[in-house]
Amino acid sequence: xxxxxxxxxxxxxxxxxxxxxxxxxxxxxxxxxxxxxxDLRQIVQATGNIEPLxxxxxxxxxxxxxxxxxxxxxxxxxRGQILAYMSSSDRAxxxxxxxxxxxxxxxxxxxxxxxxxIVAPSSGLIIxxxxxxxxxxxxxxxxxxxxxxxxxLADVDETDxxxxxxxxxxxxxxxxxxxxxxxxxxxxxxxxxxxxxxVISYQVNLEPQKVPGDLRAGMTANINFIVQEKKDTLMLPxxxxxxxxxxxxxxxVLVDPKKPPESREVQLGVTDGVRVEVVSGLQEGDTVLVSxxxxxxxxxxxxLSMNMGGSNGQRSGGGGGGGGxx
Length: 326
Prior knowledge:
Layout: H1 2-17, E1 31-34, E2 36-52, E3 55-58, E4 64-69, E5 76-77, E6 82-88, H2 89-99, H3 103-112, E7 116-119, E8 124-129, E9 136-137, E10 144-147, E11 150-157, E12 169-174, E13 177-196, E14 199-208, E15 220-237, E16 247-253, E17 262-271, E18 275-280, E19 287-290
């Protein structure tokens, strides 16, 4: 228990010293920030899903049994292509009865009573196969789901909707492949609001310009709508201008280290949330002085800064048994 009584005075000393750590020394005037050049992009972020633009459920033309499956998930098919064959309930019963009479009878009824083809009603991607060979199906059984193409459906907050326009580019990723960025363009901006937990959003459809082969319906998408993009522009950190954008601002420029900084008005442009565009008033390599935060001096007080002893300056014998016999 002796070690505990020794730690407390040291901790108190550290806390008394800490308020002065990291403050700029007199004469420095604050942090120096250099004007740099680079690319800057203003974006609106949203999340969404990969979904078919139009999905067609392929139902059987008759009730009966699936005889043979020719096409599986992930296959691109053309309109009129045969996907599977099935027997009507009557044909299936005849073939089952003929099987007990021998192969000749089976062949006879197979030739006399042809199977029914399941045909693709349009061209597209088979995204789901819902039956197997030998399965009995009713008239409302969903055999296949066919998608014409995959799109990105984004949920955009109502406060950001004014920044979205038709044909606007956006960079998209999916959670399954976060490092694979694919470009999309806005193809539809919804008119019907979606309200979830009192938050209003609108659905925005994006057409991938080049669909990655590993996209799957239902994947979660992360979207960066590109509002503005500046190439090879002058920039400053946002904190250097106290978060100001799109207008004039006054900064202190350190022209000569031996002289006081001079005030200069600059014109600011767009921001990406971290950096802001400098339209005019500064040049690449200029040094801007950011005023340091002037904190008041710490006042004494608190349990750790008080004298650890009694009124006579002597340390008492408490503190976890420090006053016991040694």
